[in-house]
């Protein structure tokens, strides 16, 4: 599934067999009634029936969604007029690329943290892509995420993208970031015929416009796929448990054995302080864990 738009699903279909040349074509489909309320998102692998010629004014039907290897989700936060339900974003990705500008607009570490937690929940790898390095140095932001072991690449408009291409080659990578960080510009450079609309940052608010209105999967010339998503201004995490976040810190898990029942790992009676003080783990790792847990709860970051 390469695109979803208002009840119409664009699928990349491979036709042909052992005696025929294999060809690929885009087919527009609708969801079969028997699928009920089951959601279909970009990245899903599906079975379709009906007219699969891809010709204009034809419509196939999606009759089955194959088991997913991963699902990137977010839930509505308290600033959105919803009932807090989870929102599936992309299926079957194996890498989440967090695109953030070093300036214009300035970095938003709390947003980066939220997206990282969502990646932990989906059990997919993370990559920090720092754009606009011609406007500000990356050192401070890189240092903030070094204890988490998050790999990073630094790029600028018109600059070399070879290192980023190496990270993307042969993988299904979903690009996420808030508006104005240069995500669409990056996509257009990686896939020259993508023609993604590019936004400009408002000088007063420091925010960009949403120029990508829906997620779309694009094949990379060197192999692999990138999935461009609309710019986000919030990333709710109500669906993510404390245990999910903690599991991403195996060096700290053993230290929670002596924690009180239901410990949030943010309070004074948490056993992790003693565990770290005894030299079992790096204090920076505990600080990073607590930063992510506080982000998950929507509470202020601990000092």
UniProtKB/TrEMBL annotation:
Residues binding GTP: 131-134, 177-185
Cofactor(s) it depends on: Zn(2+)
Binding positions (Zn(2+)): 259, 263, 265, 270
Cofactor note: Binds 1 zinc ion per subunit.
Uppermost EC category: hydrolase
InterPro entries, alphabetized: G_CP_dom, P-loop_NTPase, Ribosome_biogen_GTPase_RsgA, RsgA_GTPase_dom
Keyword field: Cytoplasm, GTP-binding, Hydrolase, Metal-binding, Nucleotide-binding, Ribosome biogenesis, RNA-binding, rRNA-binding, Zinc
GO biological process: ribosomal small subunit biogenesis
Gene Ontology MF terms: GTP binding; GTPase activity; metal ion binding; rRNA binding
Domain EngC GTPase stretches: 91-233
GO cellular component terms given for this protein: cytoplasm
Domain CP-type G: 82-235
PROSITE patterns cross-referenced by the UniProt entry: ENGC_GTPASE, G_CP
Subcellular localization, as worded in the UniProt entry: Cytoplasm
E.C. number(s) listed in UniProt: 3.6.1.-
Main localisation: cytoplasm
Family: Belongs to the TRAFAC class YlqF/YawG GTPase family. RsgA subfamily.
Subunit text: Monomer. Associates with 30S ribosomal subunit, binds 16S rRNA.
Function: One of several proteins that assist in the late maturation steps of the functional core of the 30S ribosomal subunit. Helps release RbfA from mature subunits. May play a role in the assembly of ribosomal proteins into the subunit. Circularly permuted GTPase that catalyzes slow GTP hydrolysis, GTPase activity is stimulated by the 30S ribosomal subunit.
HAMAP family, sorted: GTPase_RsgA
Protein's name according to its UniProt entry: Small ribosomal subunit biogenesis GTPase RsgA
């Amino acid at each position: 599934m390469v695109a979803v738009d208002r009840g119409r699903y664009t699928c990349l279909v491979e036709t042909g067999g052992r005696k025929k040349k294999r060809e690929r074509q885009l087919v527009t489909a609708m969801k079969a009634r028997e699928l009920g309320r089951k959601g279909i998102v970009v990245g899903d692998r599906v079975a379709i029936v009906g007219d699969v010629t891809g010709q204009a004014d034809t419509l196939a039907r999606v009759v089955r969604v194959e088991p997913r290897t991963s699902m990137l989700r977010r839930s509505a936060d308290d600033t959105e007029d919803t009932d807090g339900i989870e929102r599936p974003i992309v299926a079957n990705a194996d890498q989440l690329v967090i695109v953030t500008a070093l300036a214009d607009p300035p970095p938003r570490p709390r947003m980066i943290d939220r997206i990282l937690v969502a990646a932990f929940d989906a059990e997919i790898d993370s990559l920090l892509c720092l754009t606009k390095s011609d406007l500000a140095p990356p050192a401070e932001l890189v240092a903030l995420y070094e204890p988490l072991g998050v790999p990073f690449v630094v790029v600028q408009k018109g600059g070399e993208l070879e290192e980023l291409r190496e990270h993307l080659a042969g993988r299904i990578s979903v690009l996420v970031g808030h508006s104005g960080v240069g995500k669409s510009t990056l996509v257009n450079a990686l896939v020259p015929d993508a023609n993604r609309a590019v936004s400009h940052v408002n000088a007063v608010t420091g925010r960009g416009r949403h120029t990508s209105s829906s997620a779309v999967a694009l094949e990379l010339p060197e192999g692999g796929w990138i999935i461009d998503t609309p710019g986000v201004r919030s990333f709710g995490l109500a669906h993510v448990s404390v245990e999910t976040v903690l599991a991403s810190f195996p060096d700290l898990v053993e230290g929670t054995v002596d924690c009180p029942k239901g410990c949030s790992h943010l309070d004074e009676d948490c056993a992790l302080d003693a565990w770290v003080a005894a030299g079992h783990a790096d204090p920076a790792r505990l600080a990073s864990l607590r930063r992510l847990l506080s982000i998950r709860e929507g509470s202020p970051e601990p000092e």
